[in-house]
Amino acid sequence: MNQVAPTQKSKNTKLRPSDRRQARKKAKINNKGIYLRAIKDAFIKLNPIAAIKNPVMFVVWIGTLITLAVTIDPDLFGPTQQRNPQLFNGILTGILFFTVWFANFAEAVAEGRGKAQADALRSTQAETIAKKLASEGSISEVPSTSLRQGDNVYIVAGDIIPADGEVIMGVASVDESAITGESAPVLKESGSDVASSVTGGTRIISDELIIRVTADPGKGFIDRMITLVEGAERSKTPNEVALTVLLAVLSLIFLFVVATLPAFAYYVQSPISIPVLIALLVALIPTTIGGLLSAIGIAGMDRVAQYNVIATSGRAVEACGDVNTLVLDKTGTITLGNRLAEEFIPINGHSMQEVAYIALIASIFDDTPEGKSIVRLAERLGARLDFDPSRASAVEFSAKTRMSGTNLANGREVRKGAVGAIQGFVRSRNGRETPELDTAYQRVSQQGGTPLAVCLDQEIYGVIYLKDIVKPGIRERFAQLRRMGVRTVMLTGDNHITASVIAQEAGVDDFIAEATPEDKISVIQKEQAEGKLVAMTGDGTNDAPALAQANVGVAMNTGTQAAKEAANMVDLDSDPTKLIDIVSIGKQLLITRGALTTFSIANDIAKYFAIIPVIFAAANLQSLNIMNLTSTNSAVLSALIYNALIIPALIPLALKGVKFRPLTANQLLKRNILIYGLGGLIAPFIAIKIIDLLITAVGLA
Ligand SMILES: Nc1ncnc2c1ncn2[C@@H]1O[C@H](COP(=O)(O)OP(=O)(O)OP(=O)(O)O)[C@@H](O)[C@H]1O
Ligand SMILES: [K+]
Ligand SMILES: [Mg+2]
């Protein structure tokens, strides 16, 4: 009877990147549907209340309305000398309109996948009938929406779990594919830190459970997930706000620049019409980044979601990009974590039978996978319980005491735990300390295993070897992080030797052994005091304070509710190494935003120098028209067409992110200034010349 196996199995398979990719493929949503919906949404976003949130594009929107007015009445701002002003103004209005619409479209496409995902999640939310347990044990059938926090519910194979909850009794397998996209069933059982929480909307496929409801209807995990993936509550991140302000200020500066032009134009007797001034303004203000900014942010959150990680805010994803230090658990994060009893090592002249017997007694109340595996090994060695366990009492394991055990009816105390902890226990009872213990402890630790000493009162009987191995491939991932300038720190409650062996094997930069839950917080605080941004993963209730303290806290979906609530991200696959992918996505988000901002501003400067000469060229300053553009009108139209088309042209880049390489921030900055800055200066000259030739050829201007 290996009850732990199914959990471990599904846990391990989730680590394989190929599987993860498959899960992502499964999540691939009908792209055609997304585009069709985005086309419609791009029109809805023209509504001024929505439009004003983006100051740069709002300026363009107002410009569109003014040129529309001038198209309808060409003499609106005084008599014009233009030939055929209505055609030119009409075309201009169209281009300006599409500039705004393309920006809306970019945002709508970015939102599309999340909306589709939200729809899929909503379909799991049908009201069900729940079997509510009254305190005296009777069952009544109630609608799932009437359940409240603290209610106890009975669920049996085939039922949809009616609400989020903690398992308080039973072992069962649950199909969580509704949220994880992963079809392998997950084992749920009471008492375990990593497998005791269930999510409303998932389905129990074998056995039965009693759960205590932890969330009122409408406030459960799937409800929160829907709001998050849909982006309904998405607020701008501080970085986005800062950039939006910068872009608005730039727009204001260009507004002044353009406003001074009529005076110069008057001086050289080359008057400029209002529509041309508007066109010039739009060409100069940073419309490219203004139009793509929010799409970049949404796409970043979406990329995280495609990795089956739910971020509670865009800010969390962004913070990932700035992370300097990664704090990781040893057990289950760096190692496979299915620590099972491998061997009993008797010491102090005791026999194997004796150690097995004492270890069995010490573990009869221990619900952890470690405890259960000790019971199994002891029973395999022939140990049997020869008293009524109800007459004994449990001493629960805590990460602080690092021991657990059983108090017997006759007053005797059986304990097992970290060697140091058991030594302390024995010492306080004047027990003897032997070098034999140290030998056994060293032997287990040097293999990277966890040694647990077992004792009866003041007498140590032997050592239990809990075996664990480092996850394959983790070393390369840490090396990759190091190249990105991210330091990794392993934290473990285990002893110094085991910790150093595992740290060495996994290639982490630093480790802290015999760490208490408080140590986790203090490590994070210490790094933060040095001005560093810290990311960590965790699953236990113990981890909740540290998850809240970290700048980026990623909770495992299998973890406790407390951990999930404290974190700003939840990994649906419960794969702690995914933090590494998330950090990469965050970095990529920041790089993409920086690159496109550089490109956009470089573009605007180039456009200025491409069109201004043509405008004044009319005043017999033909030598200024270095690009030899056909006319003022064709130059203005070409610049604006380029300005509009560059937005949809860059949508794929904004959504996918610029290609990411594990380089340090400095190396990346240099590289991007070169590519996007220089590229941004050159591209408009070439594009405007080509468009000018084309529209001249078709006789538009
Ligand atoms: N069920 C248990 N009963 C008795 N002692 C235990 C039990 N589980 C763990 N221990 C001991 O307590 C120590 C601390 O456990 P804790 O869970 O805090 O850390 P860990 O699991 O070793 O490492 P990590 O922090 O990486 O998960 C363990 O190294 C082990 O020596
Ligand atoms: K522009
Ligand atoms: Mg642990």
Automatic annotation (TrEMBL):
ATP binds at residues 366, 370, 397-404, 416. Mg(2+) binds at residues 539, 543. InterPro entries: ATPase_P-typ_cyto_dom_N, ATPase_P-typ_P_site, ATPase_P-typ_TM_dom_sf, ATPase_P-typ_transduc_dom_A_sf, ATPase_P-type_domA, HAD-like_sf, HAD_sf, P-type_ATPase_bsu_IA. It catalyses: K(+)(out) + ATP + H2O = K(+)(in) + ADP + phosphate + H(+). Residues 128-230 form the P-type ATPase A domain. Pfam families: E1-E2_ATPase, Hydrolase. Residues 1-23 are annotated as: Disordered. The chain crosses the membrane at residues 55-72, 87-106, 241-268, 274-298, 605-623, 635-655, 675-700. Belongs to the cation transport ATPase (P-type) (TC 3.A.3) family. Type IA subfamily. This is Potassium-transporting ATPase ATP-binding subunit. It comes from Nostoc piscinale CENA21. The lineage of its organism: Bacteria, Bacillati, Cyanobacteriota, Cyanophyceae, Nostocales.
